[in-house]
Amino acid sequence: MKFTDFNFDPSLQNSIDSMGFENATPIQEKAIPIILEGKDLIACAQTGTGKTAAFLLPILNKLSVNPTDFTNTLIIVPTRELALQIDQALQGFTYFSSISSLAIYGGNDGAAFQKEKKAIVEGANIIIATPGRLIAHLNMGYVKFPHIKHFILDEADRMLDMGFFDDISKIITHIPIDRQSLMFSATMPPKIRQLANKLLKNPIEISLSISKPAAGIAQSAFLVHDFQKNQLIKFILSQKIYTSVIIFVSTKQKVKQLEVELQRDKFKAKAIHSDLEQAQREEVLRNFKSKSLQILVATDILSRGIDIEDIGLVINYDVPNDAEDYVHRIGRTARAESKGEAITFINDIKQYKFLDIEKLIGYEVLKNPLPDNFAKGPEYDPKVAPNKKPFSKKPNFKG
């Protein structure tokens, strides 16, 4: 289905054309007509499927046809990076219109807070906000949202994982009951159903390609002791030239340590974590997107919601605790039908976690032998990962 088939307002269609978008993705094809009809929606789709445009375009079309001087749409997101990504998308989609927007997120200085206050008071058409930052404005007493027509939660499961349920509940009390509500989530656990029941009225439900890695990702793993991980990363990076690499690490402290070691060995690596100032984080991401920075070392804050194309390699330094997070991590590569590679390091105590991942994706991931000059890694231990069962699909070893 082409975007021209939606019969968008000419100003919006001009922006879509200028950005080179022609064909809608499955989530866009299904969600856009529902949103244009004014119905509530709960959509389950993993990262990289085009869901940002799926909710932005129909909202922008409504605003193009019926302009307003008030805040019409409130979008709540879990991280400042996702807020910025959505705001950047809005800048492109509104290039030929007068629709205004602003991203509101923590980590900025007092001048930024005053700019946010002004946008709220004067009524920017679309506000994208992280829960904590918006609550800070709400507590000041000047936030009035009587004209909100659209309320959107993006990455809802991640927000609940980060403990934002109470903040979301408070935000809801400041917006009209008579509104269109949209919820987008990569997974659909019971707590998301609970939140959906609280927010949505007779919603239409869409579920697409949940928890399945893209076909273009060549997945493999190493059984490796923790003390071998840094050495193995440097070996992998020395064997092939990758223009961009993301390494996901479980803790902030290990992120910092790995950054130091990689830089000491002359790798172009930078870490991104919560101790950095916002301006520093934005600079790191900007350099990584422009390919002037080769290696990004990060915690799971980047596994969802960051639109970075053409990542050649994702390394899971640690096995994710949640099987679904594995899909989101490796989903940073093989975007837009491209090819990519994902490598996971499995230590002796996380074998059962990786078995959960293989059960979720439906096939066994190839286990690579360690290089010849490495000490022996841990053996597969059925006591650590008990009751290994046959997989439902034939193993798919892509190497």
Question: What's the quick description here?
Answer:
Helix content is 37%, strand content 16%. By secondary structure, it is of the alpha/beta class. Strand 3, helix 5 and strand 4 form a beta-alpha-beta unit.
Form type = globular
CATH T-level topology of the largest domain: Rossmann fold
N-to-C SSE series? HHEHEHEHEHEHHEHEEHEHEHEEHEHE
Q: What percent of residues adopt helix (DSSP H or I)?
A: 25-40%
Mean pLDDT: 86
CATH superfamily of the largest domain: P-loop containing nucleotide triphosphate hydrolases
Main beta sheet: strand number and arrangement?
7 strands, parallel
Structural category is alpha/beta
List keywords for this structure.
399 residues; alpha/beta; Rossmann fold; 2 domains; 14 strands; 16% strand; globular
Task: Please explain how this structure is put together.
With 399 residues, the chain is an alpha/beta fold. It folds into two domains: 3-208, 3-Layer(aba) Sandwich (Rossmann fold), CATH 3.40.50; 217-368, P-loop containing nucleotide triphosphate hydrolases (Rossmann fold, 3-Layer(aba) Sandwich), CATH 3.40.50.300. It is built from 14 helices and 14 strands. It has helices at residues 10-18, 26-36, 51-65, 80-93, 110-122, 131-138, 156-161, 165-172, 190-199, 229-239, 252-264, 278-289, 323-330, 351-361; strands at 41-45, 73-76, 101-104, 126-129, 150-153, 180-185, 204-208, 217-223, 245-248, 269-272, 295-298, 313-316, 340-346, 366-368. The strands form two sheets. It has a seven-stranded parallel β-sheet, with helices on both faces. Strands 10-11-9-12-13-8-14 form a seven-stranded parallel β-sheet, sandwiched between helices. Helix 5 (110-122) links the parallel strand 3 and strand 4. Helix 2 runs parallel beside helix 3 (51-65), helix 3 packs across helix 4 and helix 13 (323-330) packs across helix 14. It is globular. The model is unreliable at 385-399 (pLDDT under 50).
